C-alpha cells in the first residue's frame, strides 16, 4: 500500500500504450508513428500513456482478513499532511495534474477531447482548501469500531483522532485539518454535499485531504447516487477503497470505484460504456479482459485460501462448519401455506397470461414476501404497523396536505402537490406494493414521511445521523421521527401474540439448538431480514430465560456501540437478535461462534457478509453456521435462484440471459 501511494508504478504506466489509442506507422516516414483515439477521433504524434492520477487503490481482501488493521498500519507507516493552499492553487494543481496524465493532444488538434474525466465536473467548490490529514468514511455502525481499533493498535500520542458526526459537529476547515485522522459517515458526507452552497462551501469539502479511505466502498456502487457523487467530489492526494465485494451484482459496480480513485480515463462514463460495459454485455470478452488489466495494477485481493510464496496459508482461522437445517412444517402450517401459495399462484399465472410479469414485478415480490414470511411464522403474513388512526385514507390525505401548509406557511408552496397526494393515497387504497428506494426490496414495516414518501422503517432510520431527526432520502426534506406514519394496512399483528403464542416449526428447531448450546456458554447470533420476526423471537427467548440483546437499523450509533460492547463483554448474554440490513456491514462480532440464518436472502453475498462478522481474524473457536430452510416451500426454490445469482455476479451469464432470468426465476418460484 505504501508502494502504491508513493506512485512507484508510474514508470511502468508511462511506457504502456493507453488502451483507447492505436498506433499507426506512417508509410512515407518509417520513423514516425501517429496515435489515433478510436473513441474521440483525435490524432497525435506524442505517445499516449496510461497513468493514474491519484495514488492508492482497492483493498479487496475477503471479509474478515484485516482490511481495517492494514489501513491503520498504513496510516502509521506513511503519514503526512498537505500544506495550506488557496482555492485557485489547489484546483489549478489538480487540473494540471489531471492534464499531465491523460493522452496529450498534438498542437494541430483543435477538436475538444471527449475523453476527459467526469471528475472535472465535480470540482464545483470554490472555498480555500486547507491541507489536512486522513479522512475515513464508513457506515454509521462502524464509526465506534474504527475509533476503538485505532486507539487499540496505535501507540498513545502518535495520532490524533476526531469523530466528525452529529448535529453539533463543527464545519470549520482549520479545525478539521488539525486532526491526523477524521472519522465520519456516508450520511454526514451526503448531508454536507447537498446542504452546502457551491459558492461558500465548508466542512469536509474545504480540506485538501492527504488521504481518503472509503470503508465498505461498495456503498458507492450506484454511480448516479448522491453518495457516489459526493465521495468523488472530495479533494485528496491519496485514495483507497476497502471492500470485500467490489462487484456485488454487476460489472458496472466497479465504475464508481474507479471514478472515486481518479483512475483515468475510466472516470469518464462514455469511455467506460463504449470500451468495457457494452462489449461485456454483448458477450465480448474484450470488456472483461480490459477491466482485469486495469484492476491488476490497482487491486489487492486475497481470500482465506490464499497462500504465501512458500505455499503456506496466509491466515489460519478455526474451521467454519456450514449446515443447512431442513425443517418440516406441521399439518396446520402446511394447510395455511398451501392455501396462501394457491392464492398467490393464481395471481401470478394471470400476470404470465397477460404477458405483464415484469410490469407487475413489485406486486409479485409482495406475493413472494408473504410466502417467505409464512415459512418463518404464519403470524408474519398479516404483520404491519399500528395504523388504526389512519385507516381512513381521506384523513391521511388531509394530514399530508395540512403538514405541507404548516411546514411552509404558504398554501401555494405545499411540500407535495395535491395530485401527487391523491396518487399516493389511491395506491394505498388499492393495496399496491412497491420497492423501498433504499434497499430495493418490498417494504418491510413501511412508514410514510410527511412529504408522502414510502420507505422501510429500518432503512429510513438507519440513513439518519441521529435518532430523532433526519432528511428524506428521496426529496431531502427534514423529518422528525414522531412525524412518521406507519403505512396503513392492518395492525402489526392481528392477534395478541403474547396471549395466543404458538411456536412455528422453524422456531421449535432453533430453540432446541439454542438449548443444546446453553450449557457450553457459547454465544449465538440470530439473523433475520424481518424486524417483525425478531419481535416474535423475543417471546420464546424470554419465556425460556435466555438473556438476549437486539441490533437493528432503528438504533443510533451510540446505541449500536453499547449493544455490541455488552454482547462482547457480558458472559451471561448468549443471544443477539440482528437484522440482516444492520449486520451486513463490517461489525466485528468474534465473541460469537454460532450464526443462525433464519431466512434466505435473494443475494447470497448479503448472507456471506453477515457470517463474516463472526468468522474473521480474532476468532479462536470453531464457527457453526446454520441456514434454515423449510422443506417443500419457496425457500427451497430460492436456493436455486441464489445459485443463478452467483453466476450473474461472476459474469457467467450474458446480458440477454440476465434480462430473461428474472421471469424464469419467478416461474421457478411459483412451480
Automatic annotation (TrEMBL):
Domain Helicase ATP-binding: 48-264
Keywords: ATP-binding, Helicase, Hydrolase, Metal-binding, Nucleotide-binding, Zinc, Zinc-finger
GO biological process annotation, one example: interstrand cross-link repair
Gene Ontology molecular function, alphabetical: ATP binding; ATP-dependent activity, acting on DNA; helicase activity; hydrolase activity; zinc ion binding
Keyword field contains Iron: no
Domain of life where this protein originates: Eukaryota
GO cellular component: nucleus
Residue ranges constituting the Helicase C-terminal domain according to the UniProt record: 509-666
SUPFAM superfamilies: P-loop containing nucleoside triphosphate hydrolases, RING/U-box
SMART domains named among the record's database cross-references: DEXDc, HELICc, RING
All copies of domain RING-type, residue ranges: 436-476
Similarity section: Belongs to the SNF2/RAD54 helicase family. RAD16 subfamily.
The protein, known as: SWI/SNF-related matrix-associated actin-dependent regulator of chromatin subfamily A member 3-like 2
Amino acid at each position: 500500500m505504501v508502494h502504491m501511494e508513493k506512485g512507484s508504478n508510474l514508470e511502468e504506466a508511462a511506457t504502456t500504450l493507453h488502451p483507447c489509442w492505436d498506433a499507426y506507422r506512417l508509410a512515407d516516414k518509417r520513423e514516425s508513428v501517429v496515435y489515433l483515439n478510436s473513441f474521440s477521433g483525435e490524432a497525435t504524434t506524442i505517445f499516449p500513456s496510461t497513468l493514474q492520477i491519484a495514488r492508492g487503490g482497492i483493498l479487496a481482501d475477503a471479509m474478515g482478513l484485516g482490511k481495517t488493521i492494514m489501513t491503520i498500519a498504513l496510516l502509521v507507516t506513511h503519514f503526512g499532511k498537505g500544506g495550506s493552499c488557496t482555492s485557485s492553487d489547489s484546483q489549478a494543481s489538480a487540473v494540471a495534474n489531471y492534464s499531465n496524465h491523460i493522452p496529450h493532444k498534438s498542437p494541430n488538434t483543435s477538436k475538444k477531447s471527449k475523453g476527459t474525466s467526469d471528475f472535472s465536473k465535480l470540482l464545483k467548490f470554490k472555498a480555500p482548501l486547507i491541507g489536512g490529514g486522513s479522512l475515513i468514511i464508513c457506515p454509521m455502525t462502524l464509526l465506534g469500531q474504527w475509533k476503538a481499533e485505532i486507539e487499540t493498535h496505535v501507540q498513545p500520542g502518535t495520532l490524533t483522532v476526531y469523530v466528525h458526526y452529529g448535529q453539533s459537529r463543527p464545519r470549520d476547515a482549520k479545525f478539521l485539518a488539525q486532526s491526523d485522522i477524521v472519522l465520519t459517515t456516508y450520511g454526514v458526507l451526503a448531508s454536507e454535499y447537498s446542504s452546502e452552497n457551491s459558492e461558500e462551501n465548508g466542512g469536509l469539502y474545504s480540506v485538501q485531504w492527504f488521504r481518503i479511505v472509503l470503508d465498505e466502498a461498495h456503498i458507492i456502487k450506484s454511480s448516479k447516487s448522491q453518495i457516489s457523487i459526493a465521495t468523488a467530489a472530495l479533494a485528496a492526494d491519496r485514495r483507497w477503497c476497502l471492500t470485500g465485494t467490489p462487484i456485488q451484482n454487476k460489472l458496472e459496480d466497479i465504475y464508481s470505484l474507479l471514478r472515486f480513485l481518479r483512475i483515468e480515463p475510466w472516470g469518464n462514463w462514455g469511455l467506460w460504456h463504449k470500451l468495457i460495459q457494452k462489449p461485456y454485455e454483448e458477450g465480448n470478452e474484450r470488456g472483461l479482459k480490459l477491466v482485469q488489466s486495469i484492476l491488476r495494477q490497482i487491486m489487492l485481493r486475497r481470500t482465506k485460501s490464499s497462500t504465501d510464496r512458500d505455499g503456506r496459508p496466509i491466515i489460519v482461522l478455526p474451521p467454519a462448519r456450514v449446515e443447512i437445517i431442513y425443517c418440516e412444517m406441521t399439518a396446520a402450517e402446511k394447510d395455511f401455506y398451501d392455501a396462501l401459495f394457491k392464492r398467490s399462484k393464481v395471481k401470478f399465472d394471470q400476470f404470465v397470461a397477460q404477458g405483464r410479469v415484469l410490469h407487475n414485478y413489485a406486486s409479485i415480490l409482495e406475493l413472494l414476501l408473504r410466502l417467505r414470511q409464512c415459512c418463518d411464522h404464519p403470524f408474519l403474513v398479516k404483520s404491519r404497523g399500528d395504523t388504526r388512526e389512519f385507516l381512513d385514507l381521506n384523513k391521511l390525505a388531509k394530514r399530508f396536505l395540512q403538514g405541507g401548509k404548516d411546514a411552509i406557511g404558504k398554501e401555494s408552496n405545499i411540500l407535495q402537490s395535491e395530485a401527487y397526494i391523491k396518487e399516493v393515497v389511491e395506491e394505498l387504497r388499492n393495496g399496491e406494493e412497491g420497492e423501498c428506494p433504499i434497499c430495493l426490496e418490498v417494504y418491510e414495516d413501511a412508514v410514510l414521511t410527511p412529504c408522502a414518501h414510502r420507505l422501510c422503517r429500518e432503512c429510513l432510520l438507519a440513513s439518519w445521523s441521529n435518532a430523532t431527526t433526519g432528511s428524506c432520502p428521496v426529496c431531502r426534506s427534514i423529518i422528525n421521527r414522531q412525524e412518521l406514519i406507519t403505512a396503513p394496512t392492518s395492525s402489526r399483528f392481528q392477534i395478541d401474540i403474547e396471549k395466543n403464542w404458538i411456536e412455528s416449526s422453524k422456531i421449535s428447531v432453533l430453540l432446541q439448538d439454542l438449548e443444546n448450546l446453553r450449557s457450553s456458554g457459547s454465544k449465538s447470533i440470530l439473523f433475520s431480514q424481518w424486524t417483525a420476526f425478531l419481535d416474535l423471537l423475543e417471546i420464546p427467548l424470554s419465556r425460556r430465560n435466555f438473556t438476549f440483546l437486539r441490533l437493528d437499523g432503528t438504533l443510533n450509533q451510540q446505541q449500536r456501540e453499547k449493544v455490541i460492547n455488552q454482547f462482547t463483554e457480558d458472559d451471561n448474554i448468549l443471544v443477539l437478535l440482528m437484522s440482516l440490513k444492520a449486520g451486513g456491514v463490517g461489525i466485528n462480532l468474534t465473541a460469537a461462534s454460532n450464526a443462525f440464518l433464519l431466512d434466505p436472502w435473494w443475494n447470497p453475498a448479503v448472507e456471506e457478509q453477515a457470517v463474516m462478522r463472526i468468522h474473521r481474524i480474532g476468532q479462536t473457536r470453531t464457527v457453526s453456521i446454520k441456514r434454515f430452510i423449510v422443506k417443500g416451500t419457496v425457500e427451497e426454490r430460492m436456493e436455486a435462484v441464489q445459485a443463478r445469482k452467483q453466476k450473474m455476479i461472476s459474469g457467467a451469464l450474458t446480458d440477454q440471459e440476465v434480462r430473461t432470468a428474472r421471469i424464469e426465476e419467478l416461474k421457478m418460484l411459483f412451480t
